[in-house]
Amino acid sequence: MGLAAPVAVRAQDMVRFHIHDGGVERNFELATNELSVRSTTGRSIQSVSAGDFGSVVLAAKAERRSRPTEDVELVLYTAGRERTDWTRRHVTRDLLVRLPEGVDAKRLAGQLGLRTKALPVRAEGLAMFEARTSEEALAAMMALRGRDDVTAADVMLARQRQRKFEPDDPLFSQQWHHRNTTQTGGALWIDTGITEVWDQYRGTGITISVIDDGVQHTHPDLQAHYDTALDYDYNSVDDDAAPVDLANDSHGTSCAGVAAGVGNNALGVAGAAFEATLTAVRLIAAANTDADEAGAMSLHNDVIHVKSNSWGTPDTGADVEGFGPLGLAALQDGVTNGRGGRGVIYVFAGGNGLDALDNSNYDGYANAIETIAVGAVSQLGSQSWYSEPGSNLVISAPSSGGGGGITTVDLLDEGGSNNAGEGTNDLPDRDYTQWFGGTSSACPLVAGICALMLEANPNLGWRDVQEILITCARRIHHADPDWITNGAGYSFNHKYGAGMIDAKAAVALAEVWTNLGPQVSTEVSQTGLSVAVPDD
């Protein structure tokens, strides 16, 4: 018995589909000018002349008559995306169905003219059905979704997976925070998962500003993507954000390498968003004012997408301070009006003062609701010895602290922190270092991943970026007693925030994200409480 008898489907309903694919719900649209032909050598695309669902089905039937030993399938593409090999999906004859307890899968399949198939692995509550053709599988999916005795139903889609991209940068193999192969003795799974993102997104079209002690933009692993028209020096009050003190001011340059060092150029390292545009603000190489900080937070907010800030209050455990009124006003304006009203993404280091019993909550920069505060996770999979805890932490990222540092760019020649010529165990190429770290390194790593998210979905607002990072964070150090489930249902830990950043999951969710509604603030006050406030 065929599917046509029990299921009636209108042609206009068979153009767009919402299907679980690769662990994510996606919208797909039917290709009316292509069919997929599956043979013993794989799948190939056949061009057809059809204008709607009905005509492409007729074309599929004609192809089947001419190819009796091959399977002819309909083709879908991810809606709203360029049609490429990577957004194409081949509609198989199989369906994956989730059933409530007690439902007889074989009986249900028979009612719809389908047959049951054995699952490749044991999976409670799931059944696999097979239709005669891919178009009947789509119709069956829609019919199953309308039944009370079915929890979920999705046609199974075949998609081309891409061989994993690996940049040709000679020091990439040492960048364990990108891909951890235990090359420095750490845990295999402590990395960001970013290499799989690079198959599609590398930061193209996104601009990252590193606000620090300057960025040496003449470095060959930064220069090609650096925009000097957007930088500024608030310490020397000029239009060049390059560092002045080449013995001590290498911090910002190393941060820039982590965020967006030029990748796949056969030089040195690859940054997280290695095709992003870089720029910089020289701010913390000398004393600065509230007005200077306000200027840095507001500079070129129409074209700069992400601002990385690996600095804050002193890590003494005794200092509670943050933005002044001008800096705070600039920050609030940046998330309200920056980036076309979607908000600049401000990323701040959570702080390195744990050994001084410091807490990231004391840092008014990292503690501002408009910023993404970042903690550090060592290559061993736990809190780095210096990384400050705090309820303000949003996310954590791999950094130093477990025996291995972060490999990134250093100042050229004799400048910077790499003193390999003096018998240290740093890299022999003094233009790079393998001992960068702290939340200073975790911060630009998150900034680079935020750039990849914005490339995948430029419409994300600043709150959406935070929500996605929290939703996709990987819970680590499971035995740590500080893990709780908060009121929103998220796992949270004062050492790690929502957990360790997962670039692959964050970018995948960004692709299909529906923006949050307007921000809502609630104030609750209570009086007459019998609470003693101790002296001192």
Model description:
The chain has helices at residues 53-66, 105-111, 134-145, 194-197, 251-260, 290-298, 325-337, 439-456, 462-472, 503-512, and strands spanning 16-21, 24-30, 34-39, 42-47, 71-73, 75-78, 88-98, 115-117, 126-130, 152-158, 207-212, 232-233, 277-282, 306-309, 345-349, 371-377, 393-398, 406-409, 432-436, 484-485, 491-492. The protein is an alpha/beta fold. Strands 1, 2, 6, 7, 8, 9 and 10 form a seven-stranded antiparallel sheet that branches. Strands 12-13-11-14-15-16-17 form a seven-stranded parallel sheet, sandwiched between helices. It has a three-stranded antiparallel sheet with strand order 4-3-5, covered by helices on one side. The longest helix is centred in the C-terminal third of the chain and has 18 residues, at 439-456. Mean pLDDT is 93; it is low at 1-13.
> Structural class given helices, strands, pairing?
alpha/beta
- Number of discrete helical segments: 10
The 3D shape can be described as: globular
Helix share of residues?
10-25%
Mean of pLDDT: 93
N-to-C span: 83 Å
Q: How large is the share of residues in beta strands?
A: 15-25%
Features:
alpha/beta; 10 helices; disordered N terminus; seven-stranded parallel β-sheet; seven-stranded antiparallel β-sheet; 21 strands; 536 residues
